[in-house]
Design goal:
With 494 residues, this protein is α+β, with helices and mostly antiparallel strands. It is built from 15 helices and 19 strands. It has helices at 18-30, 80-102, 123-137, 151-157, 159-162, 184-197, 247-254, 277-281, 334-338, 344-353, 355-365, 369-376, 437-448, 450-463, 475-489; strands at 3-14, 36-40, 111-113, 116-121, 146-148, 171-176, 180-182, 201-204, 206-213, 219-225, 231-241, 263-274, 286-288, 302-308, 311-321, 389-403, 407-411, 414-418, 424-429. The protein has a 9-stranded mixed sheet with strand order 5-6-4-13-14-15-12-16-17, sandwiched between helices. Strands 1, 2, 8, 9, 10, 11, 18 and 19 form an 8-stranded mixed sheet that branches. It has a two-stranded antiparallel ribbon with strand order 3-7. A hairpin with a 5-residue loop joins β9 (206-213) and β10 (219-225). α1 packs across α13 (437-448), α2 (80-102) crosses α13 and α2 (80-102) crosses α15. The longest helix has 23 residues, at 80-102.
Length: 494
């Protein structure tokens, strides 16, 4: 075991998933002369949460996820969160189009057109879906969403779900033809490849053991080669922690006061998947249902068409799993080691207020294969057990934040935690993170490079033509960037 000393670089990105890959590509475009090092503990890009089998691949634009359009007490539908998420996805989509035009990305195959569909059963929920469609209709981002309650039309569009179905109970769909399926692993690889082509250094199989702030405001990272045990140090002006579940422990080790009180609760995911051509040919959509009682917002069951490595698959889930690991390839000590004096009250508060979630997780862990297929038959009544195999998806560490009244609250979104001086930032949380990676990383740029951001704006507006505008309020601009993006991404222009 040896120590190779300390090197100096401008930027260090920890983790080679979609977040670091996106930020790295942005910085390589904005500052091509900067030295950038990307550190990944595994031996491949996008091998954790960004990998195609570790997430649902939904280009989350709030077209079909019903938890983003809750019903208010007065019966009206609140579309605020759906609009916010869709606006964010439009920013991401524009950057992907720009990246293809500029050769940053070289293969369009990471994104494919797949309708996004909301599915409900029962008169009360059908009425909700009708009112949801009416509430969204006035917004240009959602105006093409259709309401369908005719069984014949249902059968024409979703033959797998119609086969063997008893249509005596009312059913309905909200159908958004503009949805996408995204292989975030493939996308991450292309973005990192661009970074390396433009001079970035990629270190695979390396752990960041510690991060220490220096008197000049820079950071020195202690790094170890997991294969050889060789140690090295990197000194940098800026470090981004995009390491999935490992981000929280790294933020804790950094000692920044902004990370005090944060904790994490790991939730795993499992999916049934099938690749029989007769099945994939009969279901060409992503169909989301209503979250089960007690399920977290990200727990709504959905039956999806996926494209992975050029092949069509169907996946159904998620079914929750649990492990104390913070990463799929993590350690069983991750959760206990994350408990600190400053976050123990946050965790206890969540433990007392989230008993329903705990009971839901226990129930999920008890499910048999037959139980899972039985749930699938709510979507596809003719499902045959032997056609479907169980696969384990990635680990998500949900954010636990301090709360004065309850001690701590569990959050299911994405959170950026950074030092006040902008020298470090870390990404915590899960969905819809990957789909909104670009606006999140633009926010990191603005917060952490405030002295440069204004000078970057002209180029950033080339990358994202609508930057600074709200497309919901500018339908002509939305039509323009949507048509341009669809053409570049080959998603079709309607």
């Amino acid at each position: 075991m040896s120590d190779v000393g300390t090197a100096r670089v401008d930027v260090v990105l920890v983790g080679a998933g979609i977040m670091s890959a996106t930020l790295g590509a942005l910085l390589c475009l904005l500052e091509p002369d900067w030295s950038i090092t990307i550190i990944e503990r595994l031996d491949a890009v996008g091998a954790e949460s960004s990998g195609p089998w570790n997430n649902a691949g939904t280009g989350h634009s709030a077209l079909c996820e019903l938890n983003y359009t809750p019903q208010r007490a007065d019966g009206s539908i609140d579309i605020t969160k759906a609009v916010t998420i869709n606006e964010q996805f439009q920013v991401t989509r524009q950057f992907w189009a720009y990246a293809l035009a500029r050769g940053v990305l070289t293969d369009r195959g990471f994104v494919n057109p797949v309708p996004h569909v909301s599915f409900v059963q029962g008169a009360r929920r059908v009425d909700y879906l009708r009112r949801r469609r009416a509430a969204l209709a006035g917004n240009p981002l959602f105006e093409r969403t259709e309401f369908i309650d005719d069984p014949d039309e249902f059968a024409r569009r979703l033959p797998l779900m119609a086969a063997g179905r008893d249509f005596s109970e009312p059913i309905a769909l909200n159908w958004a033809a503009d949805g996408t399926d995204v292989d975030f692993g493939s996308l991450s690889k292309q973005l990192v490849d661009f970074c390396v082509r433009t001079g970035a250094t990629m270190l695979f199989g390396h752990d960041v053991r510690n991060a220490t702030r220096q008197s000049d405001g820079s950071w020195t990272l202690a790094i170890r080669d997991r294969r050889t045990g060789e140690k090295r140090s990197l000194n940098t002006k800026f470090v981004f922690l995009g390491a999935g579940g490992d981000t929280l422990p790294l933020l804790q080790r950094s000692g920044i006061k902004e990370a005090k009180g944060f904790a994490g609760f790991p939730i795993g995911g499992r999916f049934l998947r099938a690749d029989a051509p007769a099945l994939t040919a009969a279901h060409r959509a992503k169909v989301y249902g209503v979250p089960a009682p007690g399920a977290p917002p990200l727990g709504a069951l959905h039956l999806d068409l996926r494209f992975v490595d050029g092949k069509s698959w169907l996946v159904f889930g998620p079914y929750a799993g649990w492990s104390p690991k913070f990463l799929k390839h993590g350690r069983v000590s991750d959760l206990p080691r994350s408990i600190r004096g400053d976050n123990v009250l946050s965790m206890l508060g969540v433990g007392l207020t989230e008993l329903t979630l705990v009971n839901y997780l226990i129930g999920q862990l008890r499910l048999t294969h037959a139980d899972r297929v039985r749930a699938l038959r709510e979507f596809a009544p003719g499902a045959v057990d032997s056609d479907w195999q169980l696969t384990t998806a990635g680990q998500r560490v949900q954010v636990i934040r301090r709360d004065r009244r309850r001690g701590g609250v569990l959050e299911f979104g994405t959170t950026v935690v950074g030092s006040a001086d902008g020298s470090t930032a870390g990404m915590l949380g899960g969905s819809p993170g990957a789909s909104t990676a670009v606006p999140i990383m633009l926010d990191v740029l603005q917060r952490c490079f405030s002295n440069r951001y204004q000078s970057w704006l002209p180029m950033l507006k080339e990358m994202v033509p609508s930057l600074g505008a709200k497309l919901s309020d500018e339908p002509a601009l939305f039509d323009e960037v949507w048509s341009w993006g669809s053409k570049m991404l080959k998603l079709g222009v309607s």
